[in-house]
Amino acid sequence: MSKLKLGRGLEAIMSPLTAAANNDENTEQVVTINIDKIKPNRYQPRIVFNEEKLQELAASIKEKGLIEPILVVRSVAPGEYELIAGERRLRASKMAGLNEIKAIIKEGASDKDKLDLALIENIQREDLNPIEEAKAYKKYSEEYKYTQEQIAQTVKKNRSVIANTMRLLNLPEDVQNMIIEGKISAGHGRMLAGIDNEEKLKELVDKILAEGLTVREVETEVAEAKKNAPQPESAPQDAEITNLVDELQRIFGTKISISGNGKKGKIVLNYSSLEELERISLLLKRG
What we know:
By secondary structure, the protein is α/β, with parallel strands linked by helices. The chain has 13 helices and seven strands. A hairpin with a 4-residue loop joins strand 6 (256-260) and strand 7.
């Protein structure tokens, strides 16, 4: 049996369902499994679940049953399974009081497949908050040594989207929590990630909360703050160098600064953890 292909998205999840409905004997079949025998997906990127929406789904399942089976893989423990996709459905089924649930057993799924499917399902269903999504991309980068381009191919998004999402992790934890809680948007966060000065960052966050600044207004504030910030002696002024900095930041997924001019100078790559340093090092080695 072939393994799930990289980047196939929900097609990889839904194809066995379609085949099962058509009674294709060469694919996985829908079976009924005891809910207590199913363990959570270790690679589930989603942390926050809306309780109200879970209750609504549970009520629907209780009344009409589960329409779409979950996807599982066999566990090392005999008779037990590990969830790959469908955690909302599993949780809601438990809330509905079900003892058993319809499932498809995916044979031969690797840990990488589990992460792929869990992430892609959540992204395409828009179930992840921006920080959960950014952390999932970071996991790809650190654990599987994926470049931003490879991540983009996996989840079918532009590389710039991946880079901008990952930049949210450069924000202080309290600001990340505000994004998770919906107090400020991911767009606000991307603008704030461009501020180096902690005091200015806090000032802008407070202003967003108090005055309801739009993303465009925050962008203007950030540009003004950078304009008024002390400039290094050899700060690059050349437009071509500025464009190169932007390109390098997209490639390496971290803040980069250049001092000097078009003839000579210095490039500084910032990192916030040993894992990120190792990832940058690997990208440099690949050339």
